[in-house]
Amino acid sequence: MIDQSMLNQTWAVVSRLIIKHPAFNEAYQLLKEAYLFNQQTGLTKNYWVVGPTGTGKTTLMDMLVKEFPPVERVDRKSIPVLAINIPALPTIKNLAEEMLVQLGDPIFYRGSAIDKTIRILHLIKVCNVRLILFDEMQHFVDRGHKRAPAEVADWLKTLIDKAQVSTVIMGLERTQIILDANEQLRRRFCRRIDLKPFDLECPTSRSHFLGVIKRIDEALAMLSPLDLQQDGIVRQLHFATNGTMDYMVKLMLGAYQIATNRHLPGIDRQCLEQAFSDSIWVEGVGKMNPFHPQFIGQRLDQRGMVFYKAPMLEVIRSQEKKL
Question: Which residues form the AAA+ ATPase domain (predicted)?
């Protein structure tokens, strides 16, 4: 009989697992140094963190907040790291309101955009903020109106100049459109950190990819570990996850549940095949499934496939068509 409680606990542990591979560690240290630099000198270091969905951008932000958490003082609240998630349907107004909410302003909804910006700048000083992180910046490109990238670029440039704290913007590659809308803002974010998917063609990256798979498998703690010496299994795992951390976790968790339901001692190819179509791509069956004998043997990144990424030119043209 399946111990559902144990299965759920294992699932929760692996879902929260933070695997600090070298590229992730390097990114974290740079952002931590930006915080300390502002704290110790009053000067700023700004970074643009770029990476596909699931490569660890939000995890970086969460770790920084955890290391430098808010502290309740007698007369105020200290917020060393101000973490802001860009609203799904972003405007300058609701972004400013989100910042005011995180800064503890009880009347965040009152006032014009200018009034809100003035209050934000005041509270940044009162709360002793040393680092601001904006996550999901591409929302201004994807879901904002036609002028949104230029408007947020102008607003951000003014805000970071007056706030004088280190600032990090995080997002997909198309966040470039926002930076391109304001040359002065682009210069302030010339330091770029890339969080890339693992690449099997690079020996170092391949080693890190295997290390992450092993770490997830160890955390699942099944009787038989996943046999990574099987012919072609490493490339199949890469095809199935595109080398992206989030998909690696999803695939392994899905395979773990299937193996447990089948009372197997460990994860096998059949578990991985079903987990891919159940947890990653519902259309990933037959020759479109990396673990199927008739798999097409190429990356699933063409239009209509699970890992397709629209070219930058296509994104720009889409932005130009907005009303």
Answer: 43-199
